[in-house]
Amino acid sequence: MSKTMDKEIEIQAAVFRRLLAHLDSRKDVQNIELMNLAGFCRNCFSKWTVAEAEKLGVEVDIDTARESVYGMPYSEWKEKHQTPATPEQLAKFNELNPKK
């Protein structure tokens, strides 16, 4: 790998860590709000981590991936920070994500 490519990967990794830190600082923003506005959430990052690791032949389980995204076990994060979705949020989510 070239030095330029190495630096690009370092930059991308740093940007991702910064994004996770930003999301961590905004625990008030619920996953369903992220899904409804942007089409992805913290759980998506966890699933993408597992999928990309698999492509590289690395085994990462979903709980490990979630802990790296949430900064704590997912069950703990949900208990401390997740609020119930409102009927309006659920309706919007279902509108944007019709069952296939």
Automatic annotation (TrEMBL):
Superkingdom, according to UniProt?
Answer: Bacteria
| Gene3D superfamilies on file | SMc04008-like (1.10.3340.10)
Pfam name, any one: DUF1244
In terms of SUPFAM superfamilies, this protein maps to: SMc04008-like
Protein name (Swiss-Prot/TrEMBL): DUF1244 domain-containing protein
Where are the annotated segments for Disordered? 80-100
Q: Where is each SMc04008-like domain found?
A: 29-94
